[in-house]
Amino acid sequence: MEPKLEKKYGLFTAIAMVVGIVIGSGVFFKAEKILTATGGNLKQGILAWVIGGIIMISCAYTFSVMATKYQYINGVVDYAEAAMGKTYAYYVGWFMAAIYYPTITSVLAWVSARYTCVIFGFSITGGECMTIACLYLVSSFTMNALSPVLAGKFQVSTTVIKLIPLFLMAVVGTFAGVRSGMTMYNFTHYVSQSSSNGLFTAIVAASFAYEGWIIATCINAELRNAKKNLPLALIAGTFITMSIYILYYIGLAGTIKNELMMAGGESGAKLAFQTVFSSAGGSLLFVFVIISCLGTLNGLMLGCTRGIYSIAARGLGPKPWVFSQIDPATNMPVNSAIMGLFLCGIWLFYFYGANLSSNWFGFFRFDSSELPIITIYALYIPIFIMFMVKGKELNFFNRVLMPCLSLAGCVFMIAAAWFAHGIAAVAYLIVFFVIMALGALLFRTNLFHRRLL
After folding, report:
1. Measured distance CA(291)–CA(283) in Å, rounded
2. Which parts of 68-147 fold into alpha helices (H)?
3. Beta carbons within 10 angstroms of residue 245's beta carbon
């Protein structure tokens, strides 16, 4: 009998995965971009966090309803198959495996390395940073591929650790800012006039900070009592995330002037922590920030290692008989994990060439940390529509109201990305269609082999 994935995760681990995957680098990495995009307008920045959070929560709720009906190997691919059929599910799985998982995982490896370089005074665009990023990628892969139980425990531990600097900044920063008047100053003084696309740019940036919750559905088949625990994890995790982000953002406003935060770049968060907690205390808490980034990387790698497996288990994709194998010793799809690491390496190379160095790719230069995330929102749209058509046994709230709200959020995110990225979105779409065409070729090859058999 072929080995199967075991039920090894509980509710607390699932919630920790949702919170741990989402909370991490994004709130530190994108907070300064949101501040810059809105010209230092904190009210507009908070609005961006709220809009992004509402869209995340509405989509998570709709998927949580689906989770009470379907549970197989890979949550989002299962939902696509149940709603749209096996062909559409294959293309969703191919996109997740070839683009979505490795792009954001590779960016997270760089972000973790970036903050490590801030501590040691290295350049964030130099060889040291990229070497550390590769080291983090390989380390995370090794933990997930060889010991998934240890990876789950690491996820829970880093989730607790990463909440420490966020809560401290939210509470202490807000208290200190109200007392010193810094919070009032930052809320009433704008650094510059935001552009016409400023709010859209901020919301798209927030989408990166909020992304990752859908990856928690990839442990559907490994979650004990998944029909009950996965919906609870999705709903609780997303609400917790939005609340923490907004409180942290307000606390940050009580530390230093917005213009200093915006000018500080990658050192802005470190400067804010040192201002409130002294130089030594701020540096220590900044180490916690790095740990939080590594926790997010671990959660993303969890999805990345299972990406190719999710379609190979259906007999599709490249060499499905190879990538569907489960190692009996580790109970992990090791071949799929190795391919996931390889794809991460390719996308990390692209991210460096397109965003951190001289323009290596000419016209084909885009932000791989944001645009793939917007694509997944586009792929949700037909799933939500068909879910409303097929979910006749559900009440109005679950069948119509929440899916419609989720649909509106997806359309809004697509429009916001177009306004925010402009011509870069066209470059990304060309690359996207080329990769999807390769997936289509593999799909036809799989069908041809099946006919021969």
Report:
1. 13
2. 75-84, 86-95, 101-120, 127-146
3. 26
Q: Is residue 424 part of a domain?
A: yes
| Range of the structural domain that residue 222 is part of | 11-452
What total number of domains does the chain contain?
1
User: Helices then strands (H, E): number in the chain?
Assistant: 22, 0
CATH at residue 162: 1.20.1740.10
- Residues 6+ away with beta carbon under 8 Å from 85: none
Collapsing DSSP to helix, strand or coil, 125 comes out as: coil
Q: What are the phi and psi torsion angles at 213 (to 5°)?
A: -60, -35
Q: Which residue has the tokens 């379907």?
A: 70
Helix (H, G, I), strand (E, B) or coil at 330: coil
Contact 110, 129 (CB under 8 A): yes
Query: Is 399 within the bounds of a domain?
Result: yes
Q: Is 16 part of a structural domain of the chain?
A: yes
Residue 194 DSSP symbol = P
Query: Residue 3 falls within a domain, yes or no?
Result: no
* pLDDT tens, residue by residue, 13-27: 778 777 766 776 677
What is the value of pTM for the model shown?
0.83
- Closest Cα to residue 49, out of 72, 18, 26? 26
Pair 250, 174: CB distance under 8 Å: yes
Backbone angles phi, psi at 9, to 5 degrees: -115, 145
CB 191 within 8 Å of CB 401: no
Q: List the chain residues with pLDDT less than 70.
A: 1-8, 20-21, 24-25, 70-75, 148, 152, 155-156, 194-196, 215-221, 264-267, 448-453
Give the integer Cα–Cα distance in Å for 94 and 432. Answer: 11
b/e sequence 411-441, b meaning 16+ C-beta within 10 Å: ebbeebbebbbeebbebbeebbeeebeebee
pLDDT for position 14 = 77
